[in-house]
Amino acid sequence: MQIISTVAELRVRLHNETNIAFVPTMGNLHEGHLDLVRIAREHGKCTKGTQSANQQAGCGVVCVVVSIFVNPLQFGPSEDFSTYPRTLEQDCTLLEQCGVDVVFVPSVNEMYPAQQTVFVEPPLIANDLCGASRPGHFRGVATVVLKLLNIVQPQVALFGKKDYQQLHIIRQMVAQLNLPVEIVGGETVRAPDGLALSSRNQYLSATERTEAAFLYQILTGMRQDLLRGETDFSKLEHGAAQALAARGWKVEYVAVRSQASLARPEEHEGNLVILAAVRLGQTRLIDNLEVCLKG
Q1: What is the per-residue pLDDT for 58?
Q2: Which one from 30, 33, 168, 268 is the annotated catalytic residue?
Q3: What is the predicted pLDDT for the residue at 59?
Q4: Among 293, 218, 290, 215, which residue's Cα sits nearest to residue 257?
Q5: What pLDDT sits at residue 51?
Q6: pLDDT at res. 259
Q7: Dist CA 62 CA 65 (whole Å)
Q8: CATH code (residue 246)
Q9: From CA 220, how far away is CA 15, in angstroms rounded?
C-alpha cells in the first residue's frame, strides 16, 4: 500500500490504471468505512462488454484508492473542524489490512493552494434538512468531492447511505455535470443496538451512548407505521420529535421524504426515506431508514 500526499505524485501513480475504485473519507475510520472499501473492490471488477477495449485489458485488476482529508470548506465557524478526530496511523493500518492500494492524504494547502473562489452550487435541497442548520455545508462537500473526483478520476466512487442527503447531492452533481464515474451507495453499518456507526459517536459519554440507540428505535417504529398504512406523515414526524424531546434530545428534524428527490412525498408515493438529525448532549447524530411500500 502506498501513502501519497501530493496531487502530482498521485497522478503519476494512477496514470496507467484503467480500473479505479475510490472511497473518499475524513479519516477516523470505522467498520462503515471499511465496508465501503470492500464494496469498492467488488464494484471495481468490470464485466466483459461494459468497458472499452483498453479498459477490458485491465478487467479484474482493481486499484482501490482511499482519501483521508478533513475538509475545512464543509465546516461552519462554530463546528468541530479543529477537534475532529484524526487517527492517520491507525487508519492506514486498517486500510492496509483491507488490501487498499493507495491512500491519498493531502494537506489543506495541497487541496487549496490558493483561496478557493470557485465552488459547486448544489441543488436547492442542499438548503433543507441538514442544510437548514448547516448553511454552506453541502457547497463545501460538493466542491471537495468534485476536486477529488477530478484528481483521482475513478470509474466508481463509494459513499455511505448514512449521509443520505450528501449521497443524493453528489449523485445530482455527477449526473448534471456529466462526470464519467458511477456513484455507489453503501448500506449503513450499525452497532448491535442499531446505532449507525459514525466517527462522531466517540463524542458520546457512556450514558449518552446507551441512550443513543433510541434514535434507531424511533425510526424503526416510524417505518413500521408506514408499512401498516399510515399516511399522515406530519403526525409521524411530530410524534417522533416529541418522543425524542421528552428524553432530553434536541431535535433538528425528523422527516419523511421521497427517496428520489428528498422532497415531501407525493400522494401514494411508494419509495420513501425517514431522515433525522438530532443532538444528544453535545453530539450531533444523523440517521435514516428507507421504506418501500407495496403498491
Answers
A1: 44
A2: 33
A3: 57
A4: 290
A5: 44
A6: 97
A7: 9
A8: 3.30.1300.10
A9: 46
Q: Cell numbers for 51, please give them.
A: 468497458
- Integer Cα distance of 240 and 276 in angstroms: 10
Asked if the structure places residue 120 within a domain, the reply is yes
Q: Which domain holds residue 243?
A: 199-288
State the burial class of residue 124 (Cβ atoms within 10 Å of its Cβ: 0-12, 13-18, 19+): exposed
CATH code of the domain in which 159 resides: 3.40.50.620
Strand partners of residue 279: 250, 284
Cell match 422527516: residue? 255
| Structural domains of the chain, count | 2
164 and 120 together in one domain? yes
33 has catalytic annotation: yes
- The predicted pLDDT at position 285 comes to 98
**237 is a domain residue:** yes
**Could you tell me if 271 and 179 lie in one domain?**
no
Query: Alpha-carbon distance 149 to 152, whole Å?
Result: 5
Task: Please list the ranges in the chain whose pLDDT falls under 50.
Answer: 47-58
* Grid cell listed for 113: 493552494
Q: Which pLDDT belongs to residue 60? A: 59
Q: What pLDDT does residue 53 have? A: 43
In this prediction the pTM is 0.93
Give pLDDT tens digits for 20-59: 999 999 999 999 999 999 999 988 765 444 444 444 444 5
